Amino acid sequence: MYRKILIATDGSEASKAAERGGMKLAKSLGSEVVVLNVINEMAISKAIAALVGRGFSEEDLRRTLKDSAEEIVTDAAKMGEDIGLRVEPLIREGDPALRILETAAIEGVGLIILGSHGEGGISSRLIGSVAWKVVNWSETPVMVVR
Amino acid sequence: MYDRILVATDGSAKSKVAVQHGVDLAKATGAKLLGVYIVNEVVVASAVRQLGADKKDIEAKLQASGEKAVADIKKMADDAGVAVETMVKSGAPANMIVDLARTEGVDLIVMGSHGESGVTKLLIGSVVQKVLYWATCPVLVVR
């Protein structure tokens, strides 16, 4: 079951738990894995608005965000490859929830796995806005990992 | 991978889709299944208060639909060769599911996105919403 699993991560603690749980599940089901990090367009515009012209160039900021996204998906992919999985790392830009749903549809995944909170999460009780939107809008089963 | 998977049902057709995912996952990962139906005490209380229903009567009816719903889970699990245990409990559904997951050492909860009272296509039901808020283990939501 679940020939292909999408693990969405932003490198946060709950995302790391989703990566670990997702990779183990993929291993036991024999699934392929797509690891996705979405560079949040809101974070890009905020960073640009706050920092450009104060010694930072837009290109540098974009490169920094891209580098950090690369690191997140590369680390996750390595975790999967180390246990013998086929992992495709992907980076997208935009609204995280929408890009996750869109990627799930394009890649034809049978399951989406993500953390309950992203980098912006504060409470240990409630779930983050990205997980909330994905669970509400997804036609594909969604696993939320704390 | 998983030792114990809790599948929560309210007996609806949507719940059955989620149960099937739970059964398949248990089969594929070698987990035991815990099938749960919660007699919603809020529904019982409001039926008594607003409709003047007999408390014992309404409880018995809900208990019976619960027994039937978990018997369906047992059959699906048996057909798949998956070890299964079932429970019908009374309480507030989300609280009970979260508590049971903790006390029974469950490592995954599987639920349908909507129960019987779900009407909208896009938004998820209130029980699954609360379970997502409070659960300490992963939750798989199936539409």
From TrEMBL, chain B:
It comes from the Archaea. Residues 1-143 form the UspA domain. CDD domains: USP-like. InterPro entries: Rossmann-like_a/b/a_fold, Universal_stress_UspA, UspA. SUPFAM superfamilies: Adenine nucleotide alpha hydrolases-like. Gene3D superfamilies: HUPs. Pfam families: Usp. Belongs to the universal stress protein A family. This is Universal stress protein. It comes from Candidatus Methanocrinis natronophilus. The lineage of its organism: Archaea, Methanobacteriati, Methanobacteriota, Stenosarchaea group, Methanomicrobia.
